[in-house]
């Protein structure tokens, strides 16, 4: 999982588990050190070095895409985070970031989604950028049911809870940053989240 790391992989994974469960880096290192002594810098380095695989087509039958977007603060600017999940197993199917939110960005996001997972109905919160994007891509579109709304809102809140302190640990001072470090962090988050969901299921 992480090359050139003398720490046994099971402790690396547990350290990441503690962090993504909501603990700070220091609190995570304190818990981990009860079994294997490592400081918070070690966990920070594991997050930096971790290279999760790209999202692949789901082997399970996909009923539909539940899609939503939310705003995140990175450095001195705000970006849009786009998320698609599958309602049955709640795994994240695709995640993307953009500096704008409009029909063209939504169309590009959904287009990349169906390239990996195929065409399926799309459920959204009624944002005006979705219906035209779905129409252009010939995707069935409907507004969230109460269950779909509950599932996506819980997922989005979980993501936002873990990104609130993003700049505390991953500060970016590069002018006109391409946000590569943000994408790497989010790929790690998705990889961890989906593996945890698989384990629970």
TrEMBL record:
<dbReference type="Pfam" id="PF13610">
    <property type="entry name" value="DDE_Tnp_IS240"/>
</dbReference>
<dbReference type="InterPro" id="IPR012337">
    <property type="entry name" value="RNaseH-like_sf"/>
</dbReference>
<protein>
    <recommendedName>
        <fullName>DDE domain-containing protein</fullName>
    </recommendedName>
</protein>
<dbReference type="InterPro" id="IPR032874">
    <property type="entry name" value="DDE_dom"/>
</dbReference>
<feature type="domain" description="DDE">
    <location>
        <begin position="66"/>
        <end position="164"/>
    </location>
</feature>
